[in-house]
Amino acid sequence: MSKNYEFLINAHPNIYNKMSYREMKVYISEPEEGVNEETGILLIIPGFGANANSNVYKKMRSIFADKYNLVTIQCDYFGWEFMQAEIVKESLSNFNDMGLMQALDNITAVMIVAEIIKDNNLKFNANKIIAYGHSHGAYLAYLCNMYAPDLFSLIIDNSAWLLPSYIRSNRYLYIDGDPLVFNYYAKWVIKDYQIINLPFLYKNYANRCVIHSFHGDNDNLISLNEKRDFCRMIQNCFLHEITSEKVDNIIFKSNTHGLNADFLLLYDQIMSNVDIKFNKESNFNLKNHKIETSKFIYSFDYSNIIPLLKVEEK
Fold first, then answer.
1. Which of 7, 92, 227, 244 has a 20 to 30 Å separation from 235 between CA atoms?
2. 65: Cβ–Cβ under 8 A, 6 or more apart, which residues?
3. Which residues pair with 72 in a beta bridge?
4. pLDDT number for residue 276
5. Position 282 pLDDT exceeds 90
């Protein structure tokens, strides 16, 4: 059985609240036989309605660690509490920002766990770092790949949208027929959509990460045509279109958003049926870089290994 741990780390400072100090919990599973030069890292990112303590994610972390020789990671990223099935009051100190801070937290979790491995005089394969997400979690994987270029070698995307719908419209949940209406704080706080808009970010990006995207032709949050256009513009992106004919009631139980997919079997399918080779490398070195939008300059600093973002208005 894998070895499972959870602990608090310093999260990225809150960019919306005077760079105030934050902590977050990280969850990891280590292969029973330990970490070696072939061991990779798998970042699993939940979306709306799920979190790192969901039973399916606990199971995934444990099983994938042993089955695929991975250190599996999840974190309680910025604003996850407001993405569940309960309305909770948001504020500048903590809210569902739906993008920038959430991606930075996930990158931070990977970098800190990698440093912990090294501090224990162990080696792992720095060219085998994978992100696996569902819906908003898959969308965050794309942001992580953009904000930390060349950190990830593989993204598995189940139904990622290209810009969060709930940053412009309300989220509705129906519990026993009664509606819950989420009117997210991010609508009033987020001033720049370009930094979280995937088509804008990836337009001229030389992507080297292999991406396998699964998307249904009856998705009500983002159309298959939009996803097709997006994937075509990215190097190394492979789109798997799930139509009604491909609903097998084993891996895919629908062709709607999320595909009602079996998360474990979907990952198994990629690892078993797609020829993915991970070159062996013991170190990685993330470079400082900038992303410019029409309103702001975003400077991502990796001088101290974990990301530190500086935002300047133009």
1. 244
2. 2, 29, 30, 31, 32, 71, 72
3. 29, 42
4. 79
5. no
